[in-house]
Write a structure and sequence with these properties.
- The N and C termini lie far apart (38 Å).
- This protein is of the alpha/beta class and 259 residues long.
- The chain is globular, with a radius of gyration of 19 Å.
- The chain has one domain: GTP cyclohydrolase II (Rossmann fold, 3-Layer(aba) Sandwich), CATH 3.40.50.
- 33% of the residues lie in helices and 23% in strands.
- The chain has an eight-stranded mixed sheet, with helices on both faces.
- Zinc ion (ZN) binds next to loops.
- It catalyses: GTP + 4 H2O = 2,5-diamino-6-hydroxy-4-(5-phosphoribosylamino)-pyrimidine + formate + 2 phosphate + 3 H(+).
- One of its GO terms (biological process) is riboflavin biosynthetic process.
- GO terms for molecular function: GTP binding; GTP cyclohydrolase II activity; metal ion binding.
- This is GTP cyclohydrolase II.
Length: 259
Amino acid sequence: MPAIKTLDPKVLSLLQPKIKLIKKDEGAIYLVGPIKLPVNLDGQTIEFKWYCWLNCKEVTEDFERIVAKLSAVNLAELQQSSVLVYGDFEQEESALIRFHSICHTGDIFGSKRCDCGFQLKQSMKQIAEHGSGALFYLANHEGRGIGLFSKALAYILQENGFDTVDANLQLGFADDARDYSDAIAVLKTLRSKPVSLLTNNPRKLDALGKAGLDVAGRVQLWGDVSEYNEKYLQTKIHRSGHLNEEDGMGEDKDCCNND
Ligand SMILES: [Zn+2]
């Protein structure tokens, strides 16, 4: 498809106020939203505000240039990340944040090998119950950053006795190859007040702290333990340093070790 040169002025006027430029050290993030997103949570309709972002080398306030290039780029081949925001996220004193790493098998298929699908839905519920917060869905974090195909290979190793950490290492990957800097840049654009983090993973607390964010606290997110993910969750605790103050796996887990 050839790239278009100019946009209809009406189309541009609709899009312009919904796009925000976030400059990075190199390149920029273009954040689009908010967009109303009513979600079915256990039969209840909860209305979130949805934002999506795109990384681009070109840094410009001329959004027509960016939009005009999209049709020539196969963006579906490169998944974009997004964030679901609930309540008065900018102004509310207390807000719950979840940085959720994409998990194709857990989030979409409901795989019991991990607890990602459970954590995704549970964090949306907790954020809505809390009254204000944001769920970041990080599309480049599949399999702790190794990608879906490599995760399939890692699962084969796991079926043959390797734990989640060793499987990644055997395939030549770092145990955890995820980067949170873009999500943090987006978070800082949406809110400057302190946030509480929904996670069992101390690395996420570290990443936020190092990025200069004011972290008010941490809320645990364990649950949906089964015979299929017990080993995975134990690995998270014993090898990946996940915190589990509540003792026991009674409410803990994570299969792709994605938390
Ligand atoms: Zn998972």
